[in-house]
Amino acid sequence: MTTYAIILASGSGSRYGSGVPKQFIKIAGKTLLEHTVEIFEAAQNIDRVILIIPREYRKLTEEILLYGSYKKIYKILNGGKSRKESSYIGIMSIEDNDGYVFIHDCARPFLTLEIIDRCQQALQTYDAVDVAIPTSDTILELDSHNVITSIPNRNRLRRGQTPQCFKLSLIKKAHEYFRDNDNFTDDCGLVIESGFAKVFVVEGAEENFKITYPQDIVLADKLLQIRQTKAPHSQLGDLKDKVIVCFGASSGIGECIAQIATEYGGIVHGTSLTLGCDIGNFSEVSRYLKMVYAQHGRIDFVINCAAILEMGSIEHRNLADIYREIQINFLGSIHVVKAAIPYLKKNVKSSIALFTSSSYTRGRAMYGVYSSCKAAIVNLGQALSEELRSDRININIINPQRTATPMRYKNFGNEPKHSLLDPRIVALSTLHTLLSDLNGQIVDVRLDGEVGGGGGGGGGGGFPANNQDTLSL
After folding, report:
1. Which entry of 54, 214, 364, 426 is 20 to 30 Å from 62 by CA?
2. CATH of domain 229-445
3. Residue range(s) occupied by CATH 3.40.50.720 in the chain
4. End-to-end Cα, the chain, rounded Å
5. Fold topology of 3-225
6. What are 84-121's pLDDT values in tens digits?
7. What is the mean pLDDT of residues 297-315?
8. β-pairing, 48-53 with 393-400?
9. What is the model's pTM?
10. Upstream peptide bond of 342 is cis (omega within 30 degrees of 0)
């Protein structure tokens, strides 16, 4: 059976208080609409997506979707005067009666793939499924004079979320039954009031909150900025005959990337400072890429994992050393990307991988320059993903945890082997990412072998632990 997702994005955002509906506000480089659509694009058990939008924003919506090259968008429909009417419009546009439908608020961009999976599994048993989480606050019931009349037992109370999921035949029947009654704020309410079926509840997530007020955007922007993504599995055989340039390839992760890509038939050009190319010097980077392009007539993938690490407080460090660290760890990535764009944009599809560190979420004393540069790389990559999308250039940021590299050994000495990532694991995640459709994502590579938090936009989700006590190299 076909599973449809209806994204309700037709609200005016009156409580948000902006001149533009909140679904078109940009957070972390993309509109709220894009973040939400990408969740369902990444969900394997969702077949088709229907957007319900404000009529006057149809042209803007179509432009946004054109840039995104989304594959599952089935229909774009003008919404109604109420949530109930907009939901009705979406449901009745579906000709099937035997499928499933997920109805989701566009203003919830932190929905995870796990929640979608739980809903899909529950629909095998139940005709209607809702998503909810326990309430951590005490709930008060007041009278018209703001006097407490009761305090319900919160152990039985839940905070409702979306998606709300149904067998199509049921929700169509419920909507038709209450066609002339607008006293409903959600679709599960229709089913419950009709008595046609019981509604089963699956566990949601705290981060699956609804953006309603301006202050919510501030929180959402930060959460999306640090949100991490799972690197999808790709066919590494697709590296065959691809021209790959890797900066920082003389040791560690870069060396492993070059080795693995070569094993799968890639045409790899690896360089580094010791091999004669200083990424802190734009002319040297530009000259190297020009040489590769002249030899092969194209460049498909570019990777920069070159970095240096110096320890010391700002007060006592030499300014020349600080400038050099910034030149390599931040400006180096700018040099690589800027020099690579003219060659990569000639392709139907190409990709860039930059590297950050788990310390980017919060700086660590004595390593402030390094961690701040790595935070800047995240911001740079997310901004460039938007700038370069029209040129069909994807750019992602690889975020490995502590890795057994020569640079780490030189800075920290001997450490238990089990506490460090094998650089080949990081290299494999990088290559999988280059071959994927991910764009603007932080791809987290973890010691437990998991990549990302398993949910949300672009196939991932979850939020990083506080890693200020470690540096990934």
Report:
1. 214
2. 3.40.50.720
3. 229-445
4. 47
5. Spore Coat Polysaccharide Biosynthesis Protein SpsA; Chain A (3.90.550)
6. 999 999 999 999 989 999 999 999 999 999 999 999 99
7. 94
8. unpaired
9. 0.72
10. no
Question: Tokens at residue 59, please?
Answer: 């042209």
Where do you find CATH 3.90.550.10 in the chain?
A: 3-225
Crossing angle between the packed helical segments 187-194 and 83-92, to the nearest 10 degrees:
80
- The 3-state secondary structure of the chain reads CCEEEEEECCCCCCCCCCCCCHHHCEECCEEHHHHHHHHHHHCCCCCEEEEEECHHHHHHHHHHHHHHCCCCEEEEEECCCCHHHHHHHHHHCCCCCCCEEEEEECCCCCCCHHHHHHHHHHCCCCCEEEEEEECCCCCCEECCCCCEEECCCHHHCEEEEEEEEEEHHHHHHHHHHCCCCCCCCCHHHHHHHHCCCCEEEEECCCCCCCCCCHHHHHHHHHHHHHCEECCCCCCHHHHCCCEEEEECCCCHHHHHHHHHHHHCCCEEEEECCCCCCCCCCHHHHHHHHHHHHHHHCCCCEEEECCCCCCCCCCCCCCHHHHHHHHHHHHHHHHHHHHHHHHHHCCCCCEEEEEECCHHHHCCCCCCHHHHHHHHHHHHHHHHHHHHCHHHCEEEEEEEECCECCHHHHHHHCCCCHHHCECHHHHHHHHHHHHHCCCCCCEEEECCCCCECCCCCCCCCCCCCCCCCCCCCC
